[in-house]
Amino acid sequence: MRRLWLVVLLTVLFVTPQPAQAAPVQWDQPGPFAVVSEALDATHTVFRPADLGDGKHPVIVWGNGTGAVPAVYAGLLRHLASYGFVVAAANTVNSGTGREMLDGARTLVAENARPGSRYFGRIDTAHIGATGHSQGGGGAIAAGADPLVTTTVPIEPGPLGSVEALHGPVLFLGGQLDIIVPPALLVIPRYYAASHVPAVYGELAGATHFTPAGDGGGFRGAITAWFRFWLAGDEQARGVFFGPGCALCADPAWSKVLRNARALDV
C-alpha cells in the first residue's frame, strides 16, 4: 500500500503538467499601445497612446540636449508612449532650467480637468516623471524638485539642477565612453549626492554621449522599466533594479551599476 501511494505521489509531482511561467518582459521591445504624436500646445510635442481608452495614463516630461528638438529623440519618446505613457516633450533647444518641461506637465494636468479635451479624465496627475538627455538631463533634475514630479531619470546629465532638492527616486544614466559628460566626473558624484532618496546609477558599456539619440539605444529598456515601476506600479519591472536578483546588476551590457542604501530597501 505504501508503495502504491509513493507511485501516486511521484505521478502527481512529475507527470502532472505545471503552469507555464510568463516570459520576462523585454522592456527594450515595443509596448502594446499604438502611438501618435502631435502638438500639445505651441511649445510642446506630445507622444501618446493613439487610444487613451477609459483609464488614466502616467505622464513623462522630456528635455532635449543642447541644440536638439524632440524629433531627434522621437524613437525613444514613441517607445515610452507605447507602454501607456503620455510624453510631453518641450520644443526648446535649451531645457536646462526644467521650466519648459514642467509647463508641459501643467498643461496636461489642466487638460485632464477640462471637459471636451481628449485628455479629460485620462491623465494620472499623481504620477509624473521627468527625463532628458545632456542639458535636458540637468533640466530633469531641476524639474524633479517640483512637487508635481514623482521620479526622475537624468540621462548623461548636464550640471544643472540640484540633486539635493529631489524628493523622489532617481535613476542616473551614464555612458562608459562619454567624453562630453564623463561619468566619473559629472554623473557618479551626483548619484552619491542623492543619498536621501532611492538612487540607482547605471553606466552603459560602450555608450557615447550620442547613444541616447534616436530610439535611446541601450538605455531604452532601463528607462522604460524604471518608469513602469515607479509611475505605473508594474511589479514586472521591480526586479530590473531592486532585490537580490537585480537584473541590471548582472547584465554585461552595463559596465557599472550602483544602488544606494535606500534603493536596497525597495
TrEMBL record:
<dbReference type="InterPro" id="IPR041127">
    <property type="entry name" value="PET_hydrolase/cutinase-like"/>
</dbReference>
<feature type="domain" description="PET hydrolase/cutinase-like">
    <location>
        <begin position="30"/>
        <end position="236"/>
    </location>
</feature>
<keyword id="KW-0732">Signal</keyword>
<dbReference type="GO" id="GO:0016787">
    <property type="term" value="F:hydrolase activity"/>
</dbReference>
<dbReference type="InterPro" id="IPR029058">
    <property type="entry name" value="AB_hydrolase_fold"/>
</dbReference>
<protein>
    <submittedName>
        <fullName>Alpha/beta hydrolase family protein</fullName>
    </submittedName>
</protein>
<feature type="signal peptide">
    <location>
        <begin position="1"/>
        <end position="22"/>
    </location>
</feature>
<keyword id="KW-0378">Hydrolase</keyword>
<dbReference type="Pfam" id="PF12740">
    <property type="entry name" value="PETase"/>
</dbReference>
